[in-house]
Recover the amino acids of this structure.
């Protein structure tokens, strides 16, 4: 099995290469001073340095639960399992459903697809349309699999956001078929207009809702979570504790201190949204100016911009681009069979305005 | 599949229970001030908060490698994979050798056995004797499995340390059979007299050597590592990145700063050794005084004391003990088939002198 294209790229490109490849948040937005203040507070507490509970520290689970409840999705600490990034959340679930069949969107998140392969799940890809997964295809597939993995908010890679109608339809199908939905939601806070209602909130006993602080605070904390019915959470603990006993205690206590001030966190989230919206708009302008043959939908949030260079093999093109010191992820990586196509995923959050303009011009020069 | 007895106990007992059960290091020895000083230094570095490399940060891998080299086991950064505790190191290896047969000691580390079960490995237990695994049994088993998992230094649970002769014999068998040895070594620094030579250093291309900062610094950092041949390390990366992309960056950068001062770390290790030796001696004295029917070998390092209450079912006994507010791990937990016996593992590092005396008296009262 091959490693992830993105992870390999991240490890092989030099610092002079303009990268639209990774899903890196902007370092300028890391609230380092506030995190430092929070960190200073944990050193008086010996418990922050000892082994802890497998499901995570109680105070942090309470805070995460409270955010759900505030949004109208009643949740308590026993519905939350802290994980080592939402990557691990996905790994735990894939291990839990080892060797099962699973319905996924196409294109889908590369990391999840690798996890599913590693845990012998058989993926059934259903076409993702502009307003969410094709419902007819989903219904037919889900009847057999009874298990689905989707990213309804600013999807990775396509930036697609599900319509309210499709959210309702998905919930209804999962309920009727008595199946399970894995709703991956690392980007839901990064909206430009409004926050969407999670599908999981409509089917709380039949869903796993995955969240992360990697995109809203800093990735290196490696803290994500699973929100699910208490019995479902309990059934995952044996896997969680086998993998790493518990997630980093230092990170959990830092986060717990940081989140004491809700207003500060909300302001920080708004700063990210404003900054990313500006970046997205600029990226679109530069594309329209220098690469008008690239067809895409303008993102409404998240970190990615996705589209198509018709008649071009974007996988072949990226090899040329790497030589010219610019890189993106070719669309074929996000499909189960990886047949080359003209699709491209651009990350717009990490590069500077200058790099964005220069990078797009460089891509054009490779055509 | 059942969860780990120790993890469940840890989550269910109240704070008034004297616990000899977990493998908890002493909180009094956590170098919190020095860790705080190290932590202060990471906040100027944005890289410490961004996504990082799957194998871990370069500087930390170099420092770990240098410690091996200094001890006469030539190692460079590419031989090191940073893991989320050595628990994850074991998980990664179990996933890598999924569904294979594996030779293990009996008794063995409960957490590893659970990981092997979860990843469908078939365990073949070989009797652990006072100077290490029974060589004849090991040789016969390894001829078939070509894969073994052992803990040669102050073993968990038995505190057994392999003789130099048995170390040589194991290395010879692994070499001759062209197999692989997984050498788990979280306690090797916690010696009272001398550090043992790792078996892996004799067979560097046929071994995985597992280390951890959980027992020597603080567990909540969740940082361990695998030392192996570069090609073997590379073959593990797909699994490592699938599980959590990379281990906590905050922890890695804190550790990297802390380890800048080698002398400080060496002094700290000596403090732990001195403290634990005192605790071990005291535990032995109290056992001899209040529970003379418990037969054991005096530990030479590590965190555990292991022995036998002949004619007693230690699993039945622990249920009574829990009611009286004292707990240990019954020996049957460390065997593949878990048939009750009279064996008991005591952790001596975490309780106070007062608690040790009181706890042993309470156990006696349950007999």
């Amino acid at each position: 099995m091959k490693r992830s294209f993105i992870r390999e790229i991240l490890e092989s490109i030099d610092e002079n290469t303009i990268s639209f490849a990774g899903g890196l948040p902007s370092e300028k937005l890391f609230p380092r001073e506030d995190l430092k203040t929070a960190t200073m507070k944990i050193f008086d507490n010996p418990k922050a340095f000892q082994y802890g509970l497998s499901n995570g520290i109680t105070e942090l689970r309470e805070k995460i639960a409270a955010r759900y409840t505030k949004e109208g999705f009643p949740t308590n600490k026993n519905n939350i399992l802290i994980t080592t990034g939402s990557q691990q959340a996905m790994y735990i679930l894939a291990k839990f459903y080892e060797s099962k069949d699973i319905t996924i969107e196409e294109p889908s998140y590369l990391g999840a697809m690798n996890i599913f392969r590693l845990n012998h799940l058989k993926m059934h890809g259903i076409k993702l349309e502009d307003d969410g997964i094709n419902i007819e295809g989903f219904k037919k597939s889900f009847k057999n699999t009874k298990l689905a993995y989707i990213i309804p908010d600013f999807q990775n890679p396509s930036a697609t956001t599900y319509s309210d109608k499709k959210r309702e339809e998905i919930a209804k199908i999962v309920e009727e078929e008595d199946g399970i939905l894995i709703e991956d939601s690392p980007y839901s806070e990064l909206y430009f207009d409004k926050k969407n209602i999670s599908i999981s909130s409509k089917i709380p006993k039949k869903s796993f809702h995955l969240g992360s602080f990697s995109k809203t605070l800093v990735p290196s904390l490696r803290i994500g979570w699973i929100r699910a019915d208490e019995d479902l959470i309990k059934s995952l603990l044996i896997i969680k504790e086998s993998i790493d006993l518990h997630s980093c205690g230092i990170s959990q206590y830092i986060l717990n201190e940081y989140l004491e001030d809700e207003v500060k966190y909300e302001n920080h989230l708004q700063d990210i949204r404003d900054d990313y919206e500006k970046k997205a708009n600029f990226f679109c302008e530069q594309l329209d100016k220098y690469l008008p043959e690239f067809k895409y939908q303008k993102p409404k949030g998240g970190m990615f911009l996705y589209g198509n260079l018709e008649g071009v093999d974007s996988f072949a093109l990226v090899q040329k681009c790497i030589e010219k010191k610019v890189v993106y992820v070719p669309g074929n990586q996000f499909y189960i069979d990886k047949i080359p196509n003209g699709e491209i995923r651009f990350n717009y959050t990490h590069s500077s305005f200058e790099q964005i303009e220069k990078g797009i011009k460089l891509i054009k020069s490779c055509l």
User: Anything to note?
Assistant: Chain B has two domains: 5-23+265-366, 44-260. Chain B has a mean pLDDT of 95. The domain at 44-260 of chain B is CATH 3.40.640.10 (Aspartate Aminotransferase; domain 2).
